[in-house]
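Hi V.,

Quick status before I head out on leave. The structure for the redesign project is tokenized and pasted below; the design run finished overnight.
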């Protein structure tokens, strides 16, 4: 079975690895058997070390468990195999954001956004939401507001409304505080 990565590289996936991966998905998503899923993913990776979807799933599980260092290692491995893979790039962006390395998170968000395909609307929404959050953390409120405003044309009305609700009130509040602070500083200088 072929496991295609990128346009040029192809790796042969062992049938046993594919079976184990599918069982791991079932264990994780349907039966909440996290340890069983991890065991099966690791066994699948023994059969096929470069099985991208297994590496990403293992990274996702590590992230959900709060093991950010391990998640980072797996996402980096996935990125080295497929530098344009949006799941790996967005995973790296999330890990860096959670670890408060917002500059690095923003770098990976932008890489992921550049790598998106047209069928990735939900991922795009999540990335823009994360980007606005990171921009706010970095104190780039005007840029975050502009991002939200420009996203109006990229999403359905419902998706845009959700994005606005989640971010715009915080951004507007921060911008108002910044303006008040400027006025106070001007009064103090005069």
């Amino acid at each position: 079975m072929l496991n295609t990565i990128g346009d040029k590289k192809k790796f042969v996936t062992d049938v046993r690895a594919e079976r184990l991966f599918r069982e791991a998905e079932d264990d994780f998503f349907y039966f909440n058997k996290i340890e069983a899923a991890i065991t099966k993913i690791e066994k699948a990776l023994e059969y096929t070390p470069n099985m991208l979807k297994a590496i990403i799933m293992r990274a996702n599980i590590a992230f959900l468990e709060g093991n950010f260092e391990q998640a980072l290692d797996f996402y980096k491995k996935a990125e080295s195999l497929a530098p344009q893979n949006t799941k790996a790039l967005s995973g790296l962006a999330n890990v860096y954001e959670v670890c408060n390395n917002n500059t690095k998170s923003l770098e990976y968000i932008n890489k992921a956004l550049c790598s998106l395909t047209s069928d990735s609307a939900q991922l795009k929404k999540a990335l823009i939401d994360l980007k606005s959050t990171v921009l706010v953390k970095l104190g780039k409120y005007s840029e975050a507001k502009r991002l939200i405003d420009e996203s109006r044309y990229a999403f359905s009305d419902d998706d845009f409304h959700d994005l606005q609700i989640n971010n715009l009130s915080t951004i507007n509040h921060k911008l108002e505080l910044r303006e008040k602070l400027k006025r106070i500083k001007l009064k103090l200088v005069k």
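Above is the designed sequence. The chain has nine helices and two strands.

G. will cover questions while I'm gone.

Best,
W.
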